[in-house]
Amino acid sequence: MSKLFEEIPVGQMTVKNRIIMSAMDLGFTSDGTVNDRIIRFYEDRAKGGVGLIVVGGCYPEINGKVWKSIIGLDKDELIPGLRRLTDTVHAYYQVRIAAQLLHGGRSASSFFTKMQPVSPSPLVHRSIKQEPHALTVSEIKTVIGNYVSATVRAKKAGFDAVELHGGMGYLINQFLSKATNKRDDEYGGSLENRVRFAREIIIAIKEAVGKDYPIIFRMSGDDLVAEGLKIDESLEIARMLEQSGADAFNVSPGWHESRTPILSMIIPRMAYTFLSQRIKSCVKVPVIASVRINDLTLAGEILDNEQADMVSLGRPLIVDPDLPNKYKNGQFDDIRTCIACNQGCFDSLLNFKSVSCTYNAMAGHEGEYKIIPSGKPKKVVVVGGGPAGMEAARVLALRGHRVTLYERKKHLGGQLRYAFIPPGREEIQNIITYLEKQIFRLKVHIKIGKEADLQTLQEEHPDAIVVATGGNPVMPDLPGIKGKQVYTASTILEGKVLSGKDVVILGGGTVGCEVALHIAKQGTMRPDVACFLLKHKVLSDRDVIEYTTRGNKSVTILEMKKKIGGGFGISTRWVILNELKDAGVKEITEVRVKEIINTNENGRKTEGVVYEKGGKDYFIKADTVIIAVGYSPYNDIQKQIEGKFPEMYCIGDCVKVRTVLEAIHEGFEVALKI
Q: What's a single GO MF annotation on this record (predicted)?
């Protein structure tokens, strides 16, 4: 085992292992108070073996509240709820808990605070679109005082430490960065002046609560925005703040305003670890690596290679609160690995919903959902081995039911098997891997390559049936749809046929965009080859980008709506669209496809697609046409068996085509009912 489970001092606080749970908004409160739902959520993570839990962000003053569901540290009345939380966490062996102090500055919208945002300079946030008030020196001192008061409350509430959020474009970062700090007084201009606000907060906190009370400073190693901090300036900032009393540095990349991907699955694992490695080289206090570390084996490598002293995990501990204990005990098949899809976490918050998880239906419902043995075990047949069916089978087996699962294809996973094939989507396979291992371990009787019809099910004599047969690709009624060059997206993704050089995709939803990327990336240069050629100056930087992002096929998406990519979540769509653009995929929107032209016997016609746009007809050449206009429920078996068995439930896409999150959650919930 690596250093992962070794103790480490952070100031005068000893943490039992090197695994930290990142601060994150959960969407569980609306008035800043800590409630039972928050406590239950963190209790499960404390029970799961994490060394330090960071809660928050917590606003030190109401003007810094960046979201409706942020926890407050601005009033003494909040202390009792916070104390209940820390007492609960401390009940688990040597688990520490810290409060993250986060002031949004210009990122704090008046929509939540009813106040004008503040910042070092009156520069408008790209998303908030409100001009912030430039803080006066006197007002800066007041804000510093509020940070101190918040820390005093945190200590009274039983928190073992505080983390100052000095990254991601929030207020402290706004002072540090030239991108947002245009002041010409003692808080602006030189790096020393821009660091002054952060230094004074740390010094004032230490004076108020004692030098032994640990302060972790979360920083952006690289702001990833124009005029923002780069790693060399961040090194100097870390040196200055260490001298001022910072006890550890939590290093992450970028701002929410950045157009560089930070949170999506397309980012290679550990892509930003070089930032913590650089910071570690210049300070003596512990340095924490964060972002896109979803595997504790990789986390151990980071520590062993001295790229950081600790690792910070957020989403991986939402999907699997027991991750540390499972890894330590060698229960590798039982680990749910985060796929960075953001569907249940970040996208939910952006849609003003609370945090959940794509394939952990219990996340956010701790204490509400319980998998308990059935008082009367039954024989249950699950029809369909997609994510909904596998999750239902898993939970049914855990509850003691005798479960048989039928899958008409020769593999489990349903439509999800195609989702992880396009480049940058590989993490999705973790869902199938986990569910397959679980139902095999639980001895679910699996019948692959066999379609369940009425006779088959009658021979099984089940007490209950769960229908999870998924969906089938929609084939539009178009002239030429049966042409030799016309294929479904799944046929292409499975590799059953190779696409030609001129490819037209009908449909720009999730599947259409993914198959477009899959084809457009074919023939690109491998990254290791590109690095070799770049190192030896055979290629230029521009050449490397070109050769690694674009293949040699012409790919065009035809979409009837105004925009493509509508099926992706808010935090993912823009990343996918950028990838499509970089790969050279063309898009034509607001069209109506009229006909697919096939080559006639004499070869006189050019293959392609006729479509209408703006009242005019156009023709586009295509030697391969891919149908990706969506799926429709496949529910033939439901019609055959309705009313013929004691219990029958229908879940997932066979009811209505939706997201994998909804399918898995339905599978979980129906398994609790039987």
A: FMN binding
